[in-house]
Amino acid sequence: MSHATTPPGGAQTQENPYKNKAIGLAIAAAVGGFLFGFDSSVINGAVDAIQGQFDLGSTLTGFVVAVALLGCAFGAWLGGRLADRFGRTRVMFVGAVLFFVSSVLSGLAFGVWDLVVWRILAGVGIGIASVIAPAYIAEIAPAAMRGRLGSLQQLAITLGIFAALLSDQLLQTAAGGASETLWLGLEAWRWMFIVAVIPAAVYGYLALRIPESPRYLIATGKRDQAKDVLTTTLGEGADVESHVAQIEKTIETDKKLESQSSLRGNRFGLLPVVWIGILLSVFQQFVGINVIFYYSTTLWQAVGFGESDSFLYSTITSVTNVLVTFIAIALIDKVGRRPLLLTGSIGMATTLGLMALAFTQATYTKVPDPDHAGQMMTQTDLPHAWGITALIAANLFVVFFGATWGPLVWVLLGEMFPNRIRAAALGVAAAAQWIANFAITITFPPLLDKFGASLPYLIYAIFAALSFLFTLWKVPETKGIELEDMEGVKVDRSRRGTAAPA
Q: Among 60, 70, 200, 302, which is least packed by CB within 10 angstroms?
């Protein structure tokens, strides 16, 4: 469509206004991804100060870092069900409120256990946002743009990670240390949590302003409102009435198949497509991406870089993660989902294997922990050449992940499920992702302490290799397929992975 259109209000607009509208709505929804990324990394700058403030051991410190992920898993599971009952935008707003409240209370925590409670509450809000954003984007995006718009979720996550690292550094520098008092008698680490109220408030405001998903509107009998939304996202030149009729037909079919509207199936209790979503989520986390972001500064200090250099390299890694997401945005609707996933699996397996090899050259020494009298810590020494090799391999790993598995899993989760189970299935898959994230986060420190860095990175490399086989045999290509046509899509190996009706 290259001609100007006239929206319902009658005013003439520029060419392709529906694309701008769809992009705007996708960006608004993706702010939930920003909260996701921000919350994932904001704890980094505060963790040492929290450990000192509350006199925590390493195990309890690791639990405080990871516990929000359990809340995320519950929020993801709950969010999918609430979205089907109350709508996408209302549940977005609930997630924003939970994150806003938890950010304030985390900053005012008087002990470790109430901090744990508020971190779990933050996790619930983030888990809700992680489910609703990809579902909403998939449901408002034109099929030809759905991959690119769905990738905005991962772009927002990477921007949130970078913003959290930058915010932590600015607050720490302003106070002269994370444990030092900054404003209103509160230490800098507390302000690291409190500043999260800004993106939470923005997300809540946007949730109140954007229209509801047209599929939810039609399912609840609001046909005219759904037509208005589709007109603004597809364009007046599009056959909106036909699109509405197609959605109504799938909803009617779903009613006839109501007995099949649950996630239960004959494959270990779940439908095969739900298992594909779960395994996509698990593989995305089991390649160890969050080890890079949660423990990167500590890791680079361990291999011989100074504190300031370690923070610089961590920041460079987070910026790299942001930039390479644009590769996925540029290619996903041209190349397709499967080729990018397969390429990413090969690249991740290779770079993680190289990191594992580099750390076989390390020596590990038990030394007294300077921050905790009577406790020991593991000091890692890596020859300079191998340290540089590990640094380069880690950043190349981030490139392969950020351009493929990072954004594409969210795109696939938003589009691969049939309409009648989309939100609920996405909730289960996202919950599995958060649980896998928790497992990786909580197991890395003891693995590092007992076996050194080589074994965990070898494990992650093996999972990256397995993700290649899984994608090759089980993941369908969904490029260009309308959401109403997702029912029964499977891998057609005779056509090299293209989608075909089951």
A: 60
